[in-house]
Amino acid sequence: MKVKITDLDALIIVDMQNDFMPDGVLPVKDADKIIPRLNEYIKMFEEKSNPVFFTRDWHPENHISFKGFGGIWPPHCVQDTEGAKFHKDLYIPSDNKFIISKGDSRDFDAYSGFQGTILNDLLKERGIKRLFVGGVATDYCVKNTVLGGLNLGYQVFVLEDGIKGVDVNEGDSEKALNLMLDKGATLIKFEDIK
Ligand code: VGL
Ligand code: ZN
């Protein structure tokens, strides 16, 4: 399947932060391996003057998703820490890019880039109808961002060569992908885009 990028399209790169990298506190296996491919997508969208959105987990240090504060996760992506920064090799365009912080208040967690953010408003303002989503983790924030986009009426493409999952339970990422596809998302890879 070939997909032509038009001005209705936006790229969403989910949570490519140090804490989710293989040597981070909440490691996603091989998360760093998708960076070169994600950079190719980012440069392609930049060249075509399409917007690129970077979501990031941006938690206070006593966030409810953390063990000891009611959650299941080790403390991760605490605001203004090294672990919350994007991986140093991730290419961030200087123009037409947006950083979307989520999970930034203590009592509210957000796996979806749409939850509690202005992402949908920014997309609507720009007339965006189709989303291309990559990043981590397939079974948490990618999944929920994709489902959120579908629910809001966007056509959503999942970058199959640009996602990695945490798989707390074996098969979680595969299940998550199947759910996204069931709900109407389409899998694509870099070669499918022109
Ligand atoms: C995520 C677990 C906890 C993610 C965020 O970005 O997928 N996973 N917080
Ligand atoms: Zn989190």
UniProtKB/TrEMBL annotation:
Q: Which UniProt keywords apply?
A: Hydrolase, Metal-binding, Pyridine nucleotide biosynthesis
Alphabetized InterPro entries for the sequence: Isochorismatase-like_dom, Isochorismatase-like_sf, Isochorismatase_Nicotinamidase
Give the domain of life. Bacteria
Metabolic or biological pathway, per its Swiss-Prot or TrEMBL entry = Cofactor biosynthesis; nicotinate biosynthesis; nicotinate from nicotinamide: step 1/1
User: Does the keyword Hydrolase feature in the UniProt annotation?
Assistant: yes
Signal peptide range: none
A GO molecular-function descriptor: nicotinamidase activity
- Domain (Isochorismatase-like) ranges: 10-191
Q: Does the keyword DNA repair apply?
A: no
One matching Pfam family is Isochorismatase
Coiled coil feature spans: none
**Enzyme class per UniProt:** hydrolase
Its EC number(s): 3.5.1.19
One of this protein's GO BP terms? pyridine nucleotide biosynthetic process
User: Which protein family is named in the record?
Assistant: Belongs to the isochorismatase family.
Under what name is this protein listed?
nicotinamidase
State the organism of origin: Hydrogenothermus marinus
Its lineage reads: Bacteria, Pseudomonadati, Aquificota, Aquificia, Aquificales
